[in-house]
Amino acid sequence: MESRKDEHLLIFDEDKHRYTLDGNRVPGSTTFGKGGYPVGEQLIGWMAAQASIYTAKMIQRLRKNNPNRIIEGELLAKIVKKSKKASAKVAKRAAGIGTIVHDYAYLTEIGRAREGLQMLSEHESHPDWDKINNGIKKYEVWREQNKGETVLLEAIVASVVHQYGGKFDHLSIRNGLLILSDYKTSNGIYVDQFIQLASYAIAIEEWLDKWLAQYGLPLKVGGLEVLRFGKENGDDFHPLLITNPEEIEQLKYQAIRCRQTYKFRLAWENDKRFKYNGGASAAKSGDTIKEPGIKRVSRKQRDKDSASKVG
Question: Which of 33, 67, 148, 198 sits most deeply, having the most CB atoms within 10 A of its CB?
Answer without folding.
Answer: 198
